[in-house]
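Query form — protein Amino acid ABC transporter ATP-binding protein

QUESTION: What is the three-dimensional structure of this chain?
INPUT:
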Amino acid sequence: MPILEVKNIKKSFGPLEVLKQISFEVNKNDCIAVIGPSGSGKSTMLRSLVHLDELDGGSVSVNGNYIVKDGVYSKPQQVKQITSNMGMVFQHFNLFPHLTVIENLELAPKLLKQNDSAQTRQLSMELLEKVGLSDKADVLPSKLSGGQKQRVAIARALMRKPEILLFDEPTSALDPELTGEVLRVMKDLAEDDMTMVVVTHEMEFAKDVANKAIFMDKGEIVETGSPVDLLSNPQMERTKAFLSRTL
Ligand code: ADP
Ligand code: MG
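ANSWER: The structure tokens for Amino acid ABC transporter ATP-binding protein are given below.
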């Protein structure tokens, strides 16, 4: 059974159909790269998977548990329970500026009273170590570079030990010289068998790290395939046109 199953999801903002019957599956250990032009619905698709956007129709299930089934949402408590299995990393980091790095990591577990504080502290330090920032635990985000901020955001997303990690253009807000350190951490996660869905314009990352690629345009999945095939030898005209503009 796939970890995440997305079936015929639909979403409109007013008259604008942003997601038109999108379906795909994510299996354990998949790293799926989602590419496509700006405005094609990539962020809305990711956000809807964790119920940051509400769908108008279709189904999303994690390990067979439905967040939404044929357009009908499960009870809020159940939706919360299911989405707590998923982590999200945003383009603009979304760190709390008034909290130190380690406080950013510890905030959610403290609010949810999930673990005792010694355990939370230990996990935070382990994750900061993993993203190469154990020496930054006590600084404010404003003292960090964009690449470091994004690595903190990744560590924070890992605090809940998610089964799936979703990334929405994690390097798009970074200066080019800072993208490498973030992509490196993401590659390490994929090599550690983290299940990931990554919206990205980093075609080299997609080819090197992802095992599957999805090309979206105008709210539809136009083409899917192995990243190398899809990026080097696209079959559909829309994919060809997009790649010829970006490469
Ligand atoms: P992408 O991430 O591929 O650039 P988005 O999912 O952000 O695409 O947006 C898809 C379309 O939906 C765009 O036309 C965008 O302007 C529109 N859109 C996104 N969020 C909203 C919103 N909250 N209200 C109205 N329109 C929105
Ligand atoms: Mg987007």
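ADDITIONAL NOTE: Residues 13, 16, 18, 36, 38-44 surround adenosine-5'-diphosphate (ligand 1) (CB under 6 Å).
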